[in-house]
């Protein structure tokens, strides 16, 4: 099957299947970004979370909290207040942990150069833990992530280990990180929109530039050609083609590429 056709099939399957997340829909703060990506033929999103503050009860597993082995006491994608946390903590009978998790976005890309463009935009927007994964079947995935998370234990075996004043302090930090996360999402959206528009203009103008260069060639209107000059012209054109090939081989955008089982 043609690679582009296979990519279109993957995209159609992903965008038509049911949303199996806890919320069942795309988070409000990332809807515009998801729609922008899915509206382009070279991208589609496979999962997303706009960022959240959560309180987890990890049972008796200590600090190694895993989603499948813990109880979600509180989840919010908006700024959080101390009263909500204190009420939720009363339900904890294990090791409760307060976390802020920034944006996580997974995007499948048609080609590596598409992933590299998106990776560059993500990095410039502040998501500096982003990376590209190339799978065995040729699937190219970009994970958009950042490092400004927060994870703090609050209780052990149901006993609160910190003061309410400290919890209030933590929430101020978490809410500040939430606000910064939102700004980065907006920056990502605007930068991506600009990059895609610039890419479209560059692609559309390339054939015209080549046609104009051909018509403006100083040799076009000459009736007679000197063999030596003609040979020199041929060599020059070959060198130009070599430079064009070098540009195509080097996309000019750095990216960290991880294997599928990284």
Automatic annotation (TrEMBL):
SUPFAM superfamilies (alphabetical): SSo0622-like (SSF111278)
Pfam families in the record: TYW3 (PF02676)
GO biological process, one term: tRNA processing
The protein's Enzyme Commission number: 2.1.1.282
Biased composition, class Basic and acidic residues, residue ranges: 199-212, 227-244
Annotated region described as Disordered, given as residue ranges: 199-262
Key word Cell wall biogenesis/degradation present: no
Catalysis performed (reactions): 4-demethyl-7-[(3S)-3-amino-3-carboxypropyl]wyosine(37) in tRNA(Phe) + S-adenosyl-L-methionine = 7-[(3S)-3-amino-3-carboxypropyl]wyosine(37) in tRNA(Phe) + S-adenosyl-L-homocysteine + H(+)
Coiled coil: none
MF GO annotations: methyltransferase activity
InterPro entries per the UniProt record, alphabetical: tRNA_yW-synthesising (IPR003827), tRNA_yW-synthesising-like_sf (IPR036602)
This protein's pathway: tRNA modification; wybutosine-tRNA(Phe) biosynthesis
Domain tRNA wybutosine-synthesizing protein: start-end pairs: 10-193
Keywords, in A-Z order: Methyltransferase, S-adenosyl-L-methionine, Transferase, tRNA processing
Gene3D superfamilies the record matches: tRNA wybutosine-synthesizing-like
Family: Belongs to the TYW3 family.
Function: Probable S-adenosyl-L-methionine-dependent methyltransferase that acts as a component of the wybutosine biosynthesis pathway. Wybutosine is a hyper modified guanosine with a tricyclic base found at the 3'-position adjacent to the anticodon of eukaryotic phenylalanine tRNA.
Name used for this protein in its record: tRNA wybutosine-synthesizing protein 3 homolog
The organism of origin for this protein: Camelus ferus (Wild bactrian camel)
Gene from which the chain derives: TYW3
């Amino acid at each position: 099957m043609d690679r582009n056709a296979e990519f279109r099939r993957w995209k159609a399957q992903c965008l038509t299947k049911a949303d199996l997340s806890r919320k069942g829909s795309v988070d409000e703060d990332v809807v515009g970004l998801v729609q922008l990506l899915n509206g382009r033929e070279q991208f589609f999103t496979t999962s997303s979370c706009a960022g959240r503050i959560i309180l987890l009860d990890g049972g008796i597993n200590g600090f190694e909290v895993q989603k499948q082995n813990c109880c979600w006491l509180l989840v919010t994608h908006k700024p959080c207040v101390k009263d909500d946390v204190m009420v939720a903590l009363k339900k904890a009978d294990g090791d409760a942990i307060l976390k802020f998790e920034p944006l996580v976005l997974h995007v499948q890309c048609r080609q590596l150069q598409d992933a590299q463009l998106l990776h560059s935009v993500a990095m410039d927007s502040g998501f500096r833990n982003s990376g590209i994964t190339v799978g065995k079947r040729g699937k190219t995935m970009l994970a958009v992530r950042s490092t400004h998370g927060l994870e703090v234990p609050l209780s052990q075996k149901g006993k609160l280990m910190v003061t309410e004043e400290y919890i209030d302090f933590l929430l101020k930090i978490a809410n500040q990180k939430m606000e910064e996360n939102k700004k980065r999402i907006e920056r990502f959206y605007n930068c991506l929109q600009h990059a895609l528009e610039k890419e479209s203009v560059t692609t559309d103008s390339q054939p015209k530039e080549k046609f104009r260069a051909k018509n403006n060639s100083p040799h076009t209107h000459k009736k007679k050609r000197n063999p030596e000059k003609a040979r020199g012209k041929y060599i020059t054109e070959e060198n130009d083609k070599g430079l064009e090939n070098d540009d195509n081989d080097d996309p000019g955008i750095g990216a960290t590429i991880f294997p599928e089982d990284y």
